[in-house]
């Protein structure tokens, strides 16, 4: 494959700027700054901390749930869930605080980690029903390999399933409400148009979650519709006629990941990573489920110049848990760490050699951001 011009593909500015309040840069797709150099994700944090009336939002939540609450014993809401802390708080509160009958729906990770599987079991044994979907293992491996080279993100086929499988289950079971966790466009990109969105229409998923990618791209790569049945979107007319609504918990309840962790630890037995912090960051409790998780973040580092520590630190600065100075130190210490713990498993899963992996890295490394010094790649501009 030819080298990708990442800046052009993602419409990124040539001049790199970092937010003056957190550690994110303008290289995050769809990220904008105001005239004072503050990113819109930080401005959204100001908005949710100071301007939203959360009592009113809870009244809206109770009204919404009353509209969808069933009295026949059937499931009345779906919560997409891998067993992580964020979906755990949503599903557990819907059942035990708001009296709903939720069905958690899981699109299986590529390869569960031991702690991810243990936390998933904890979720089920806290009293929540679950349906888990596994794609064809041969097809999923081939798609993951293709996505690594052609999309610069091995998680692309997983994301298709993660978004569409709960929708398929909702259609099959006649469930009209899906509750996702946070509104990523507001929490991480700060798009003002998303600040007050209760959720996305069920036909908006491609725009916000698929980063311009399409399942149909693989029909030209030797895969049949039967091969891709678990990834293709349901018939749109059927989806629109179904009346299904997809809402964000973060619209109704203030989204604080650290508080989600404390709640899940107390109520679903959620445990942090016993191996210590995750590679590429300082956190021990986020995104623990999948053994190839680290490569999703590593390719984001190659393309956009920020990795897992940046994402964690930026949110914790906005939540007031750490200072910007502490965040900068954490990013400079951990962000560029290579995820070596599961590297050989990842190569085996994708059926590629180590040389082919490094070839994929160079296809997607953003030349506007990186420079080689001796045998070492460095960012031209680092957060400071």
Low-confidence stretches: none
What structural class do the secondary elements suggest?
A: mainly alpha
| Largest β sheet strand count, sense and barrel closure | 3 strands, parallel
Mean pLDDT over the full residue set: 93
Number of strands: 8
The fraction of residues assigned to DSSP E strands is 5-15%
The DSSP helix count reads 17
The rounded distance between the terminal residues' Cα atoms is 35 Å
> Which outline best applies?
globular
Share in helix: 40-55%
Secondary-structure element series: HHHEHEHEHHEHEHHEHHHHHHHEE
Query: What does the radius of gyration come to?
Result: 20 Å
The strand order across the widest sheet is: 1-2-3
Explain what the structure shows.
- The protein has 384 residues and is mostly helical.
- It contains 17 helices and 8 strands.
- It has helices spanning 6-9, 40-50, 54-68, 85-96, 114-124, 137-150, 156-173, 184-189, 205-209, 236-242, 249-252, 257-267, 293-304, 308-318, 324-334, 343-350, 354-364; strands at 77-80, 102-107, 129-133, 177-180, 199-200, 245-248, 370-373, 376-379.
- The strands form 3 sheets. It has a 3-stranded parallel sheet.
- Helix 5 (114-124) links the parallel strand 2 (102-107) and strand 3.
- Helix 14 (308-318) packs antiparallel against helix 15 (324-334).
- The longest helix is centred in the middle third of the chain and has 18 residues, at 156-173.
Descriptors:
384 residues, 17 helices, three-stranded mixed beta sheet, globular, mainly alpha, 45% helix, three-stranded parallel beta sheet, 8 strands
């Amino acid at each position: 494959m030819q080298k990708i011009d990442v800046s052009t593909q993602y419409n990124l500015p040539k001049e790199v700027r970092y937010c003056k309040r957190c550690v994110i840069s303008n290289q995050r797709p769809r990220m904008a700054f105001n005239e004072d150099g503050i990113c819109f994700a930080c401005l959204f944090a100001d908005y949710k901390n100071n301007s939203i009336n959360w009592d009113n939002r809870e009244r809206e939540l109770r009204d919404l749930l009353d509209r969808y609450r069933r009295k026949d014993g059937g499931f009345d809401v779906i919560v997409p869930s891998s067993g992580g802390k964020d979906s755990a708080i949503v599903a557990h509160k819907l059942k035990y605080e708001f009296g709903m009958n939720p069905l958690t729906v899981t699109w299986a990770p590529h390869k569960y980690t031991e702690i991810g599987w243990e936390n998933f079991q904890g979720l089920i044994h806290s009293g929540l029903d679950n349906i888990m979907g596994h794609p064809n293992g041969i097809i999923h491996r081939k798609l993951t390999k293709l996505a690594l080279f052609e999309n610069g993100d091995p998680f692309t086929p997983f994301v298709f399933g993660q978004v569409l499988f709960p929708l398929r289950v909702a259609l099959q079971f006649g469930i009209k409400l899906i509750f996702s966790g946070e509104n990523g466009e507001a929490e991480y990109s700060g798009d003002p148009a998303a600040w007050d969105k209760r959720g996305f229409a069920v036909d908006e998923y491609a725009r916000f979650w698929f980063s311009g990618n399409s399942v149909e791209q693989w029909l030209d790569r030797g895969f049949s519709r039967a091969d891709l049945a678990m990834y293709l979107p349901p018939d749109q007319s059927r989806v629109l006629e179904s009346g299904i609504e997809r809402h964000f918990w973060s619209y109704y309840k203030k989204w604080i990941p650290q508080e989600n962790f404390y709640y899940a630890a107390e109520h679903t037995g959620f445990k942090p990573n016993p191996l210590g912090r995750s590679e590429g960051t300082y956190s021990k409790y986020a995104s623990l489920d999948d053994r190839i998780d680290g490569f999703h973040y590593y390719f984001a580092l190659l393309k956009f110049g920020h990795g897992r520590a940046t994402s964690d630190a930026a949110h914790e600065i906005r939540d007031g848990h750490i200072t910007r100075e502490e965040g900068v130190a954490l990013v400079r210490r951990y962000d560029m760490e290579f995820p070596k713990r599961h590297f050989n498993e990842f190569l085996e899963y994708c059926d590629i050699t180590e040389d082919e992996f490094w070839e994929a890295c160079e296809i997607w490394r953003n030349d506007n951001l990186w420079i080689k010094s001796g045998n070492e790649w460095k960012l031209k501009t680092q957060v400071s």
